[in-house]
Amino acid sequence: MGTSTQAYGEPWYWDNRYSSESGSFDWYQKYPSLAPLINLYIPRHVHPRILVVGCGNSAFSEGMVSDGYEDVVNIDISSVVIEAMKKKHSNHPQLKYIGMDVRDMSEFQSGSFDAVIDKGTLDSILCGNDSRNNAPKMLKEVWRVLKDNGVYILVTYGAPMYRLQLLRDSCSWTIKLHVIDKLLSEEGSEHPIQELMNPVPIDDNGSSVEAVLGKNPDVHYIYVCTKDEYLKPE
Fold it and tell me: What Cα–Cα distance (Å) separates residue 39 from each residue in 19, 66, 129, 136, 228?
């Protein structure tokens, strides 16, 4: 693992990066390509309160607001990017930006969000130092701030064999899996590996996914994790 990826969990790395980076950048997928799935699992008509973790300078939340979402809270460990995004969106009351570490969201009450969206934040923590402790800390905090039956939508490069056990060991979730071609957001695809809106069957260890998608498919994985209100994490 390279030095830069090991620093993905450190505020100084992101402060330095955002100090020298202008414009917006979206990890993995842009909002339009994921909008149908977001609309399905986070219906706009219920006026959901949404938390976007590790927001960076992404235009994803801006896309959500343009699509009718009215309450999108964004957090990031980098004070540099948070200040920049506050200024950029000062005339959008639907968007809030707060400097915060996803491993400690004590500023938020338990059960205060209908949905949490994560594009690359868990992946960054898994690349960083002490990921064995930091990843479960993050997931338990995500679980805590969600309302009963709230959804955690995780967009990741991590296949089920690398993510399912971590998700299940950390908290009590009901998990559905969707996939989207990596190139969809850039140039479109007439024949995607798997239709975005069709869940991929998953068994206990995720091995069933290979039967559907083949070996090493060029996709991003989208885990839709619904908080189980009956079981609490330890």
Answer: 33, 13, 35, 28, 21
Segment 9-33, tens digit of pLDDT: 777 677 787 777 777 778 789 999 9
Q: Count Cβ atoms within 10 A of the Cβ of residue 34 and give its class: 0-12 exposed, 13-18 middle, 19 or more buried.
A: buried
pLDDT digits (tens, 9 = 90+) for 67-117: 999 999 999 999 999 999 999 999 999 999 999 999 999 999 999 999 999
Q: Is the pTM of this model over 0.70?
A: yes
Q: Take residue 139 and report the two structure tokens written for it.
A: 């997931």
Question: What is the per-residue burial (b if ≥16 Cβ within 10 Å, else e) of 116-149?
Answer: bbbbbbbbbbbbbeebeebbbbbbebbbbbbbee
Q: How far is CA 165 from CA 25, 74, 85, 108, 146, in A?
A: 30, 27, 35, 27, 20
- What is the pLDDT, as a whole number, of residue 206? 79
